[in-house]
Design goal:
Length: about 120
């Protein structure tokens, strides 16, 4: 069973991170794993909790003989590089750099956080 668990854990299941407007923090779910949902006070903690929830969900499904679907693919990801160039006003660049420094992360990580947060809001 450990081999099957590792197989499913290695698949690229789409994760949705949404702000919890009622309780605060963030809610995470995997659309292809029905009922696999968790939360966290920060995006980082929500992400870590989601990894645990995914592992527990898959483990329980394997133990109970529940069929686990493989991730759905809306588009082939091979056509995307994961990079793009962005021009911005110097004042915005400065502001983003200052916020990233205050959080103790790189500006790249901070911008990815902001993009992920907004993408989750508009994903539905």
């Amino acid at each position: 069973m450990n081999g099957k668990l590792n197989y499913y854990m290695g698949l690229p299941y789409r994760m949705e991170i949404l702000p919890d407007t009622e309780e605060g923090g963030f809610v995470v779910r995997y659309p292809d794993l029905p009922g696999c949902i968790t939360c966290g006070d920060t995006i980082e903690s929500a992400y870590l909790n989601a990894q645990d929830a995914k592992k527990e969900w898959i483990s329980a499904a394997l133990e109970d003989g529940i069929q686990i679907t493989e991730p759905s693919r809306e588009k082939d990801l091979s056509e995307y590089s994961g990079q793009f160039k962005l021009r911005m006003p110097k004042s915005l660049h400065r502001s983003l750099q200052m916020h990233a420094k205050a959080e103790g992360i790189s500006m790249n990580q901070y911008c990815l956080y902001l993009l992920t947060k907004n993408d989750a809001v508009y994903a539905n």
